[in-house]
Amino acid sequence: MNKYRIMFSPTGGTEKVAKAITKEWDNVEDIDLSIADKNIVLSLTKDDIAVIAMPSFGGVAPQLALDRLTKIRANNCKCVIVAVYGNRAYEDTLVQMEDYAIKAGFNVIAAISAVAEHSILHQYATGRPYEKDCKKLAEFGTQILEKVDKKDDSKPKIPGNRPYKKAGAGMIPKVGNLCNACGLCADKCPAGAIVKSNPRIIDNGKCISCMRCVDICPKQARKVDGFMTVVASLAIKKACSVPKNCELFI
């Protein structure tokens, strides 16, 4: 049985969660869905198992990541889908991921919701996943392998709605005077939204507000609008006031 982590993790929170889930798994291969223009050639088998992990942006998964997932030939590979969110709500992310995983040929045997530090409003879920989160996620991973060993193909009841909620408008980072056009953001942008010949130029139509460019900029030259972050922070303050727990659906 081959094991895989199939991840879309622009700022690292989703990757931390996926690695916590598979802490007790051996020989896990990573598949990165965040690389722009990469032709994913991967064919799995029904004897394999994969953790498919994506962030929840406004209650749904990034369409770009979902589309890349469907390029994989899963061939009934067993999988657990993982929605990672910033302590507000994951809403329809899991059912959306379930539908796209099935479209790619995966056999969804479990689902997990997990909290990581908010990628824009860092005051929410700061530092998560905590050590206790990671311990719980590792326990989930063990339970999933036990289900596989029992050859239990029962389907989990996954929360969410169909049709999915509509994705909201994201916040597009702005480029400040500190930018020295090093090009790192353009090389690493999952959506290819930053012009490589001039990293100061952003294609607003391609940007998915994943915040990788903000996270990796060595000069801290990219930021989202301060007024908009204040407005967004107030809008979700109540929903984020109580820390959410990781959940397993199996």
Mean pLDDT: 94
Global structural class: alpha/beta
Uncertain residue segments: none
Gross morphology: globular
Main beta sheet strand tally, sense and closure: 6 strands, mixed
Number of DSSP E strands: 8
- End-to-end span in angstroms? 20 Å
| CATH architecture tag of the largest domain | 3-Layer(aba) Sandwich
Q: Record the strand order, biggest sheet.
A: 2-1-3-4-5-8
Rg on CA atoms, Å = 18 Å
User: Which CATH class of the largest domain applies here?
Assistant: Alpha Beta
Percent helix, as a range, is 25-40%
Tally the structural domains: 2
Please name the fourth-level CATH homologous superfamily of the largest domain: Flavodoxin domain
- CATH fold-type name of the largest domain: Rossmann fold
**Strand fraction:** 15-25%
SSE order in H/E notation? EHEEHEHEHEHHEHE
* Helical segment count: 7
